[in-house]
Each structure stands twice: as structure tokens, then as C-alpha cells.
Amino acid sequence: MKRIGVGVIGFGTIGAGVVDLLQKNGDEITRRLGAELELVKVADLDIESDRGVDIERSKLSTDVADVLENPAVDIVVELVGGYEPARTFVKRALANGKSVVTANKALLAVHGDEIITAAEEAGCDILFEAAVGGGIPILRSIREGLAANRIRTIYGILNGTTNYILTEMQEKGESFERVLKEAQKLGYAEADPTFDVEGVDAAHKLTLLATMAFGKKVSFESVFTEGISSITPQDIEYAHDFGYEVKLLGVAKFDGDRVEARVHPTMIPKNHLLSAVRGVYNAIYVDADFLGPSLYYGQGAGREATASAVVGDLIELARDKVAGVKGRVAPLSFPLSKMADARIKPTGDIRCRYYVRLTAVDEPGVLSRISGALGKYEISIESVVQKGRDEGQAVPLVLMIHEAKEADIMAALDEIMAMKVCLGDPVVIRVER
Amino acid sequence: MKRIGVGVIGFGTIGAGVVDLLQKNGDEITRRLGAELELVKVADLDIESDRGVDIERSKLSTDVADVLENPAVDIVVELVGGYEPARTFVKRALANGKSVVTANKALLAVHGDEIITAAEEAGCDILFEAAVGGGIPILRSIREGLAANRIRTIYGILNGTTNYILTEMQEKGESFERVLKEAQKLGYAEADPTFDVEGVDAAHKLTLLATMAFGKKVSFESVFTEGISSITPQDIEYAHDFGYEVKLLGVAKFDGDRVEARVHPTMIPKNHLLSAVRGVYNAIYVDADFLGPSLYYGQGAGREATASAVVGDLIELARDKVAGVKGRVAPLSFPLSKMADARIKPTGDIRCRYYVRLTAVDEPGVLSRISGALGKYEISIESVVQKGRDEGQAVPLVLMIHEAKEADIMAALDEIMAMKVCLGDPVVIRVER
User: Fold this and answer.
1) CB contacts < 8 A (A, B)
2) Which of A291, A304, A326 to mutate to test binding with chain B, by most B CBs within 10 Å of its CB?
3) Residue B126 forms beta bridges with which residues?
4) Among A148, A292, A329, whose Cβ lies nearest the Cβ of B319?
5) CATH number, domain A351-431, options 3.40.50.360, 1.10.730.10, 3.30.70.260, 1.10.10.10
6) Distance between CA atoms of residues A116 and A122, nearest Å
7) b/e for A11-25, b at 16 or more Cβ within 10 A?
8) What are phi and psi of A145, to 5 degrees?
9) Is residue B372 scored above 70 in pLDDT?
10) Residue-level pLDDT at B216
11) B137 cis-preceded (ω within 30 degrees of 0)
């Protein structure tokens, strides 16, 4: 029986999940492959803590070279996360002729070009299904299942933490701050939640999705990113009244010329499948020219689901190894040499519908002045709701605006703010159908 | 530039879709592959009708040998459908060393063993993504994305025609017969709709899904199959009152020992994602040990979506061809030699919840006699609804029943029927959560 040696760097939650999966399902994997995935070595600085899996002491090492330089290791699994030393480890593995499986979205979104080039030069493979959508086989679907299509649009709920927070805010009517604290207690949010709640993690994932879907190099810096910390339960309630749910959505579109890629709170119709995605689950909606709309749903994070994606990649590489091939499929779906830099549509050029909530001073003529400013930019209002009103006090004024250009909306809002008839900042939520 | 020759047998709707796709997206496919998918020949008995695509006359032939015996054809696409002559064509292609792509679920569900054996013996590949879920990459997801898992449960909306009919019945409150007629007019149902409405098509697809997911040979004959023709708008309305939708569901479960596979109208909770799948769309929900629940949604039929799946398979085989390998992945996910016959759970042993609608004679003591008969089999009633009642007339009596054994339910219903207190047959709909 052929054996394929696996080395793991990083024995944290996911690393332990991978070890657990290989132990529990190894026999079925062997039955599929006609070969054995053999765990050769696990490297981590901390090999004393209990990870909840039984592993022979001899398979643990604090020296990463025991994985990277080990001739018995065919495939290296990088689960360190972050930019360094993960980047160095991945490049060393590739330089040593070992293929790599990683869950590291940050590394690939920011240094993808460098890493993929290193893989191509070494004639090795690198797979990273776990980097986007956790256990959902979305990258494989784009790279293979949908390979006959030109993909036009992607909408993704790509971050479980923020989807959990928005779901709780909606169901309990509680504030962002309160729900975040609860999520931190439950382990659904990090002590420093910035990466998740400000949309950075989702933007990393969207970078990879857009690059693979459109076959253009989309840089992480070009992704417009806005988090959910300014969303209030009131906005979620108003959204409901208009027939929408509020989700942190990754949106990527390609019109054949320019790419737009953005992560922001988004109102989507209540009856859209994405609206039914609750809690820590993720889902990716893809619109392709021949397939039409399709959707992929599952757990976007967690020990078991992520291990499922990592070991799925190991099985794919093992199948290649058994067949005696390398580099069978380009990691980004298109060979790097055939991918041009994406022409990015400036944020101001984006067109969508908008929800705008203003806190207006309750004086005669205010609504007329506000709608006048919008009209000047040819922005048309679909509906206005003025909620609760105490004589002489500020009132929330909610506007649903027909499709308009982002630059026009922002310019109109600047004018409205300059009129001094509103208190605080306007809340703007983009609306997609 | 390497060329991979493609021959198509069957120039109907899907065949024309494949030709259209190769023409429209050929450049992008070449950019992905670094090789060209070249349409060499299309064979059909009718090459005169207009198929809505431009194709050189010289590429059309009425002689199937121009595909099957053509040295320029590397991959044969079989789109004839049905058992014969499709089976003969596929086997001839394989015997001639050509790999095969097919959308033929009937052929594979009934003669899969023979066809896959022929492929293995010839050292060729056979792919059939379009056979299940139309354009949804569900087979590829099971074979590769979820390959690290033991799959435990599959729930699938696998037939677009019946899902369209049930959706329309629900939304318009119209009868099965009336909606079926409308569906036939719109081209969503065949002139002879038996295969679709009686669940046969869904059972073909479930046979393939269960076989691949569990790695056991599940025979088509062992799939319990019941259609939707006896469902009434009243049942759908009662289901709503209880918080359910009615769907024609393919259900496959594996407990590590026995497999159950069944297709029947099923009540599922309104807030389940599958309940949101409307019209001709399909979706497959998969529960796996490490990944947990995941769902795949898209168009289950149609010219473009099916062509997307067929050409996706062509691209996979072309990647193998470019890499110089064959037989890299077992078509059924596990090699045939490693697959035992599934031990099928007899229908009577199935356990689920039940909706039962009886038309009871309005006499004193009837409900007590009915519940007595159920109690004798230790079947417990969750709720009873007796709708509308005219003195001395028959009344619909709707029972929601806690989890019970199918054999017990059927025996109890036989006893109830023997009491002569009910008119007509009982309507039984299984309930899954």
C-alpha cells in the first residue's frame, strides 16, 4: 500500500481537528484512495498542552524543520496563520518539493502572487479550500464544477462571527456592543474582534473568490471594506419593515471589463436564500452565465468543518501523487501567467440601491430641503418613513433610494450634512437584490 | 496548443447547449486549461432541424460511428438518454479508449455497475455531474470536497418538475391535475409526466447520490418510491398550519450498518433552507461527520445549466489528458472493487414522524377508536386537528404523529380502515426535521 506522508505545522484547534479526522476516518480515506495518508510529524512551539487528541509523543516536535526538511513528508499542512512565519514556512516547503495545504486566507490574499509563483516555480501544488467558507467546497466548485462558466456575480456571507452578531441583534433586538460581548464569552468572537467585525477577514476571502472566479488578479487593497459596528437594532428593524435582512456581504462583480469587490453591511430581500443563513453559518451565492444562480452553504469555521476542508485538499493531492502528477489544476483556477491585473471600478462608480437613516431636526421644510439636495444629483427616493415624533425634537428619517451612483449619494449627503438640519452622521446601508 | 477532441452523441436541447457553451466560452476554457476543447463531431439521427446554434455542416453526422470510431475524438459526450442505445454507445466509446461524459441518470442508476466496470477495464474515465442536480456540482463535491467525511444523511430536492408543481400548488391553492397541465404547457413537465411525478427520476438520482456518498452499492430497485399525485392543496395548507412545507424529497441515510433510500412527499420545517427552494430549482442537503450540514443549490435542469455541468466534466477530463493521466479519481468516489452491496433497511423498519389525514365519519367515539388503534402499536399522537364539521357528515381528521416505525403506522392504519369509520384512503406524508 502506497503511503503519502503528511506533516502539520501548527497544533492549535484546527491542527488537532486534522489529526482527529485522520485518526477517525483514515480507513475510509484509504478505501477511497487505495493509498494511506500517514501523519508523519506535527510541529508546534507548544507540544505540552492537551489538544484533545491522542498522538504518539514521537510524532510531535518543536522544530519546524522536522516537517519542512523531513524526506518522509510529501505534503505540508500550514496552520500557523498570519503573514510570518507562515510565509517563510510555506515557501520553504515548496522549495523542498513538498506540496502545501493551508487555511491561511490572510497570507494568500496579501501575498498570493508570491506564494503561487513559488509553487509554480517549484512544480508543486498549493491548495487552500479551508481559507474561504470553512468546510464549504466553494473554491473547488469555482475551479472545477463551474469551470465552463464566466462568473458574473458573487454574494457571500463569508464571516461567521459577524453573521452570528447580526442574527442575534435581529432576533433579540440588542445592541452591537452587547451581542459582541456575548459572542466573545461563547468563543464566537476573538478578544480583539477587529478583523472580523470590521470586515477584514471577509475581505481577505473575497479577494481570493474574486480572483479565482474572474481570472483576474484582484488585490486585497482594492477591496472596499466597511464593518458592522455602526449597525443598530433600529436599522435592522427598519430593514424588516421594508422586506430586507441586514447581512455583512462580500460582493464581487465583473462586467467583462471592470471588477468591483466590496465588503459592507448589505440589505438583501427577506425571501433570498442568503437571508435564511443564520448564526455562524456561511454561504456563497454565485451567478454564472450558463449555470445561472447557485448557492453553497455550510459551517464557515470551527475545528471539524475546517479539518474537513484541509483533509479534502490532502486527498486531492494524494490522488495526484498516486497518479504520478503535479500541477494538474492551477491553484487560482487560471495559470498565473494568464491572469492580468483586474481593472478595479472606483467605489464612487458603484451603482446600487441605498438605505439612508438621518436624524433630522424637526423643523418645517427640512424634508423638502433634504429631498431637494438628493434631486439635484438626480437621486430618486423610493420611500420615506418618519418614525416617532416629539414636538421640537430630532426624528429619525429613513429613506429608501432607487439605484444611484455611490459618488452622487455621498455628494448629496455631504450637502445635506452641511445644511445643519441633521444630528450625528447619516447611516448608509447598501441594498442588493 | 494541445487540442482535446470532443464528440457529441445527441443533438437535442442539451447537445445544442453544449455546442453553444463551447462556442461562447471556448476562449476562457482555453485560458484555464492551456489547451483547447475542440468540437470534432456531433451525431444525431436528425441533423436538419434548427437547434438555435451555428455549427458547420461538416461537423454534423447521422452516423454515430463518426464519433465513436473517430481517432480525433478523445472524449465522447453521450446525451441520448434512456437505456438503449445509450448503453451500447457508452460501452463502445470506452472500448475504443475514449473517456465518456454523460447526463444519463437512468442508465447509471440501473446499469451503473456494468458501465463503471467497462470504464475501469478500459482504463478510461466516465463522469456524469449533469446526471444529478443539473448544473449543481454536487457529485464533484461529494467525491472531492467532502471526501474526508463519512456522510450520514442526504436530503435532496432532485426533480425540478415536481418542485415546480408543489410550489405552484402551495402558492395558488390549485389541484395537482390543474398545475400539472399548466406545467406541461410551459414545458416544465413532459407530455407523459410519469417519470417525474411518480418519483422515478428522483429515485434514479438518489441511487447515484447514496452510492457515492456511502461507498456502498445501492440498487435502484431498493429505493422506496412514491410520487406526488395524491397530494392535495388541503394537505399543503394543513402542513403550513403545523409549520411545514411539502416537498418531494430524496432521503438517504446510513447508520454505519444499513442504508435507507427513499423518495416520497415529505413535510419539512418551514425555516429549513430546503423549504426556501422554489420552482424548478434543486438543492441537496448533506450531513457529514466532520463538515456537518452543508447545502448545494441551483438549476436542476435546462439547456444552459446542464451544459455547464457537461462541459465542467469535459474540462476535468481535459486537465487529466493534459497531465497525461487516466483514472485519477474513481467515478463513484470509491473504486468499484472496494464497494460492497448496501444492506438495505426494509421500508417497514424506517422511523420518522408522520402526518396522517383521514376522512372520518362523524359519529360519537370515532376519534377514540382511531386513537385506540394507534395506541395499541404504541404510536403517540402529537396533535389532532379536526377541520370544518357539518352534522352527520364526514370530516377531515388530521393527525401529527411522533416518531414511529413505518410498519407500525401501516398496521395501525390497516386496522383503522377495517373499522369502516373512514371514507377513502388515508393520506400519509412522512415528516423529516
Assistant:
1) 213
2) A291
3) B100
4) A329
5) 3.30.70.260
6) 10
7) beebbbbbbbbbeeb
8) -60, -40
9) yes
10) 98
11) no
Which residues of chain A does B316 touch, with a Cβ-Cβ cutoff of 8 Å?
Answer: 144, 147
B5 DSSP β-pair partners: B38
Cβ-based contacts of A310 with chain B (< 8 Å): 148
Searching chain A, which residue's CA lies closest to the CA of residue B137?
Answer: A145
A205 is catalytic: yes
- To the nearest whole Å, the CA of A417 is away from the closest chain B CA by 42
Which of A135, A148, A316 lies closest to B294 in CB terms?
A135
pLDDT at site B388: 66
Q: Of how many residues is chain A composed?
A: 433
The nearest alpha carbon in chain B to A148 belongs to: B312
List every span in chain A annotated with CATH 3.30.360.10. 138-299
What pLDDT was estimated at residue B390? Answer: 62
User: Quick one: cell of B181?
Assistant: 397541465
A window 58-97, beta carbon within 8 A of B: none
State the pLDDT confidence band at B1, using cuts at 50, 70 and 90.
confident
Contact B426, B416 (CB under 8 A): yes
- The CATH number of the domain covering residues in B138-299: 3.30.360.10
> Residue with C-alpha cell 475581505?
A203
Q: SS3 of A394, please?
A: coil
Residue of A41, A98, A105, A205 marked active site: A205
- Res B185: pLDDT: 94
Average pLDDT over every residue of A386-392: 68
Q: What is the pLDDT of residues B212-256, one digit of tens each?
A: 999 999 999 999 999 999 999 999 999 999 999 999 999 999 999
DSSP assigned state of A153: E
Note whether A25 contacts B148, CB cutoff 8 Å: yes
Spatial contact of B326 and B99, defined as CB atoms under 8 Å apart: yes
- Cα–Cα nearest to A33, from A329, A309, A318: A318
Beta strands, E only, A270-380: 281-288, 292-299, 343-344, 351-360
Q: Which ranges in chain A are annotated with CATH 3.30.70.260?
A: 351-431
pLDDT of residue B391: 62
Determine the pLDDT at residue A392.
64
Written as nine digits, the cell of B319 is 486537465
Q: Which of B25, B299, B329 sits opposite A148 (nearest CB)?
A: B25
Digit-coded pLDDT (tens) for A34-82: 999 999 999 999 999 999 999 999 999 999 999 999 999 999 999 999 9
Helix (H, G, I), strand (E, B), or coil: what is residue A169? helix
Residues 258-317 of B with CB under 8 A from A: 271, 273, 276-277, 283, 288-299, 302, 304-305, 307-312, 314-316
Q: How far apart are CA A428 and CA A430, in angstroms?
A: 7
CATH class of B348-431: alpha beta
SS3 A406: helix
What's the complex ipTM? 0.96
Identity of the residue in B289, B291, B309 whose CB atom sits nearest the CB atom of A298: B291
Rounded CA gap, A83 and A105, in Å?
Answer: 10
Q: Which residues of A touch B140 (CB under 8 A)?
A: 140-141, 144-145
For the segment(s) B2-135+303-338, the CATH number from 1.10.10.10, 3.30.70.100, 3.40.50.620, 3.40.50.720 is 3.40.50.720
